[in-house]
Amino acid sequence: MTGLTPTGGTRPRIAVFAGPTATILNTPDLVTSNKARIRHGLAPRPGRFDALRPQRLAAPVTAYVEAYSAHPLERDAAHLYAPPDGWLDTDGAFHTTQPAGDATPVFVVELHPDDGLYPLPYLARQRDGSAWEQAATTPYAPPEAARQTFYPDASRLYEEIERFGLGDHGTPVEFGSIADFDFFRAAPSGGYTTGPDGERLGRDFFVYYPYHLQSEPHLGDLAGATNQVQAVLAAGEHDGVQWLEGSPTVDETLYWLGLLIDTTVPLVGHAAQRRHHSLSADGDRNVVDGVKYIASGVALDAQGVDRVGACVIVDELVYTARDVTKVDARPGGYEVTGGHGGIVADLGGYGPPQLTYLPTRRQTARSQLRLTVLPKEVNGVAGSLESGVTLLGVATRDGDGLIPDAMPRVTITKYSRYAAEPGGDPRVGDEVEILARIRANLAAAPLAGFVCEGMSPFGMADPAKNSALGVAIFAGMPVVRTGRGNTGGMAYRTDPTFIVGNNLTATKARLLLMAALLKYGALPPAADPFRPTHAERAVTEQAVARYQALFDTH
């Protein structure tokens, strides 16, 4: 691809992380080809052609390639070509000189296993001899009777991009001359399930297909992935990171990494709206653009330090991770959130990447929430709304990084009109969900909080929900107010006991509040969370102000 060149004599080294439910690492089901079906007496599928899947040759083979067949107008320019290697007559015999009568000009090529993958018909069948029609042996089969469609890491994806991808002028996408890559698995999409240390679906890897086997990573998995990324970058051997994840959530993870990872190199996220190999698959180009972005050095300042922060590169655009979201699975399905900026660089055309503006929010090495400066212990809360809430110490970080069991639990609640019963007292209103979550947090989640997706852009809700969230605040759980959906304006501070989320979406505000809880811990609880005193309110307002400063700058 034009512009895909390193800036200096040394190739950059890029760490590539395979994240969860990643369509960019997912492939269509391996379906038995008609060549195999006919050979074994099975009913063929309709259609003229077999789907060709990348596979490896087991032994060398000589192939005769029909000359002038690479393009419909090649023969029209035959006078510009050197002679072919020979001709095949109507009996299939090869001749080095053109024989009399009809003969097909051909090129002769030796194909070798070490050449790499070749697109070939898929010949495998099920154990009982039947054809594969889908990923599983039967519809809704359990995991042990289903094949995986996701790659376990990105090494095969990058191999296939380099093997089959074409640049704009017919040359290969030569990753090997542009950068060096190391591949890692952080809550990956595919797993190695056999052997004594076999990985388990939903614990070690996370898929969404086959759909009935969908699994989701948990907070502990996010902690482990964060620790892994930080440990890899702490070695100082990499010039950038590419993170591959499912398109609905890649922006969330990249925003989180931008808050937590202490690094001076670019953090780039990629996703795909369509599976790898499928018609008009977009993931391959997104990966190539990410390599192009990192190798160009456009994100670095004069001292070689990244100045953009965590970003998502899709559809030839570079978005700040804070300010992008997926709205639909189609081209252009990513949009800027918050109504301000968001697109920091353009990767289209033949030229090098160009920055359009620099984000002002603090990220990575400038973040006040980066992993290396977070405290090892903060205060959490426990107890009950009836008998009282107390503070207790919570260990959040050790020598390996974040402690998975200590990850904060932040709940999103959404305001909608005509939902509340009359009255503003949460003890008699209908906010049973919020009160139940407060009680559950006090029992099992000492670091917890809420995000209220309220009116747009102000973030306020109805009196009953506001009152219930006030109970959460004075039980030690900070609450953030954001506007509804993709709000274009800023949430404003109308009550200093609430944090306002600026123009963050509720999902991004949740991540920032989780990180803030790891830094500052729980709010000071009131003796009676339903009836805080003026003095208790003043102490809470002072504690909330520290949180607000983070939301104003990150």
From TrEMBL:
Matches recorded under Pfam families: Asparaginase
Domain L-asparaginase N-terminal: from-to ranges: 227-329
PROSITE patterns recorded: ASN_GLN_ASE_3
Name of the protein in question: Asparaginase
Native source organism of the sequence: Micromonospora antibiotica
